[in-house]
Every structure is written in structure tokens, then in C-alpha cells.
Amino acid sequence: LLLLQRAANEDAYPNMYELPGGNWEKIDETILHTVAREALEETGLMITAICTEFDGFEYTTARRGPAKQLNFLVEVRSDNDSDASGEPPEPTLNAEEHQAYTWVEKGDDLEKFPTSDSMRMVVQNALTQAT
């Protein structure tokens, strides 16, 4: 599971880890188009399969008001992939939004990666479903 560390200069949750994501835009025909577009924009990774939806959460932001985060387990690849290596692909980050990334698996110590309580529950749920 890919986690991205927010940039230090972010207004909300600086330096915290989160799942890649973003917002629906008018150009998106469906929510699945949003998922594919945001994955590519945030990580440079292309989705090859959308496997399942898993628990999200509702939250409120000062700028946008109430929102709901939808989450999907996906398979990805990058143009630089050596598919035979067995290693996860390396994302390309937008430095204005994220400063680091890590791939986590079930059993990893998630305490090493600071997140909000809501995000930690989502990550734990995703890791349970991914195996």
C-alpha cells in the first residue's frame, strides 16, 4: 500500500502520511476516472486494475466544507517499471504536495508513519483487505 508524506509547508496535516488522492473534477466522467487521474497526477503511476472499494471517512475542511473520502485498492505500474523485478513501482512526487513515500504491508509498524486517526484506520483496513 502506497503512503505519501505531505509537504512540510502544507496548511493541513504537514509532514503527515496519507493515501494518494484528490477531488472529483468536471472533466471526470465517473468516480473511477477521478481515481485514475488523481493516481497519475499525484504519483505518476498508471492504474492497471481497480480491485475494490474499501472504507472511507467523512471530514470537514475550512476551504471546502464537508467532504467524503472514498478509497479504492488498485494495481499500478509506471512507465519505468521493470515488471520482472517484483519490486513496487517508484512514484514520481509533486514536491509542492508531497516530500516522501513509502510502501507498507500488513505487519509493518505503522507508528513510524504519522497520520491522522481517521487515516490510520483506513490504512489498517486497506491492509487487511489487500491480503
UniProtKB/TrEMBL annotation:
Region (Disordered) residue spans: 78-98
InterPro entries documented for this protein: NUDIX_hydrolase-like_dom_sf, NUDIX_hydrolase_dom
Gene3D superfamilies in UniProt: Nucleoside Triphosphate Pyrophosphohydrolase
Domain Nudix hydrolase residue range list: 1-127
Pfam families assigned: NUDIX
Name this polypeptide is given: Nudix hydrolase domain-containing protein
